[in-house]
Amino acid sequence: MTDPNAVPLLLTPGPLTTSETTKRAMLRDWGSRDGRFVEMNVRIRRRLVDLVNGGDRFVAVPIQGSGTFAVEAMLGTMLPPDGKILLAINGAYGHRMARIVEMLGRAAVEYETAEDTPIDAAEVGRRLDADPAITHVAIVHCETTSGVLNPVEAVAVEVARRGRRLLIDAMAAFGALPLDVSEVACDAVAASSNKCLEGVPGLGFMLARREAIEACEGNAHALSLDLYDQWRFMERAGQWRFTPPTHVIAAFDQALTEHAAEGGVAGRGARYRENCRILVDGMRAMGFETLLPDAIQAPIIVTFHMPSDPAFQFQSFYDRLRDRGFVIYPGKLTVADSFRIGCIGQLHAADMHNALAAIAATLAEMGVTHCSPVPVARRATA
Ligand SMILES: *Cc1c(COP(=O)(O)O)cnc(C)c1O
């Protein structure tokens, strides 16, 4: 791809490649108080609740901004000022929740594992037993830092058994991995438009247990992040409190229609699993090694160790791949020198095969012959 204006495919965890039809849904302006727009919001909120099998027990509350706005709003609204939260952390997004809670000035304790190690549900149980003052637990479903899948189902059992409340950052996997709130006991789930639901960025949302959010009046620390107020206003007036991201919402409505047409969570998840399998198999065939064993790898984003070959320079690899039409995801982990490649968004098997071909061609161009992180012992004398 030599044309600088050509559009590359995004092999990133979001924002990600969206469909032509989703992009086209933004080519129209909407009055925020118009009946059709109000209907669209009702439809979207209903669909989001249905995606977690929330029935009438759960409500959807959208909010402007990126996913972090939804997480911050969820924590600020659902955690009472006199509550205490246990934060299960194994990556950047867990640390981000800790920072949010610290800024909120709410009492918190942390349970941290390494970035390549899932949260241990039994350990969460022990921490809760040891500290009866803890009222809430927060966990990230798929930690995008490494791509590790945390056992939210097992953690939910431990939390519910002790009568505590669970808040889930489900951002990275929402819409691709099942999360059924009739089985996973929780008070709230936060996610956003621009990950596995394949909308454009600009919209976050919380799915909250109705009885839980009903008790959250006055908890929030900030007017614009008060999801109780947002929910009540929407129920009453059918409208957003403040200017809604109308074009983003219209695109999201279309993206949700396409998600349903693909077979919902099961269909979308199957395509991503296939993308992930093609990627991992192809990279391993070239000699790359994944950070995570397959059993704890979510089909969202894959972390690969940096090759030991001195001819491999990440920035050059990244730039050359982008010029060939594929944007991957830089960013360092603390546990290993690595880079990441996403498998979500409007990517299909053929795109993954094309990406692998571009990677192979790029490596050849750079003179990289050894992609394993383990150095070749005789390389120096070769
Ligand atoms: C993407 C993501 C978020 C939100 O990040 P933003 O950059 O604010 O959209 C939160 N948690 C997880 C696990 C994520 O993957």
Word description of this protein:
Homodimer. Belongs to the class-V pyridoxal-phosphate-dependent aminotransferase family. PhnW subfamily. It catalyses: (2-aminoethyl)phosphonate + pyruvate = phosphonoacetaldehyde + L-alanine. The longest helix is centred in the last third of the chain and has 22 residues, at 264-285. This protein is 39% helix and 15% strand. The strands form four sheets. The protein has a seven-stranded mixed sheet, with helices on both faces. Strands 1-12 form a two-stranded parallel sheet. Strands 6-7 form a two-stranded antiparallel ribbon. Helix 3 crosses helix 4. It folds into two domains: 9-15 and 264-381, Alpha-Beta Complex (Aspartate Aminotransferase, domain 1); 20-261, Aspartate Aminotransferase, domain 2 (3-Layer(aba) Sandwich), CATH 3.40.640.10. It is built from twelve helices and 13 strands. The protein is of the alpha/beta class.
Provide the residue-averaged pLDDT: 95
Helix content: 25-40%
Number of strands: 13
Return residue spans where pLDDT drops below 50 for at least 5 consecutive residues: none
Bound chemical compounds: pyridoxal-5'-phosphate
CATH topology grouping of the largest domain: Aspartate Aminotransferase, domain 2
Query: How many structural domains does the protein architecture include?
Result: 2
> For the terminal residues, how far apart are their CA atoms?
34 Å
From the 3D coordinates, which CATH architecture of the largest domain would you assign?
3-Layer(aba) Sandwich
| Spatial arrangement of strands, main beta sheet | 2-10-9-8-5-3-4
**What is the top-level CATH class of the largest domain?**
Alpha Beta
The helix/strand class is: alpha/beta
| Sheet with the most strands, sense and barrel status | 7 strands, mixed
Morphology call: globular
Q: How many H/I helices?
A: 12
EC number: 2.6.1.37
Enzyme class: transferase
Modified residues (N6-(pyridoxal phosphate)lysine): 195
Subunit structure: Homodimer.
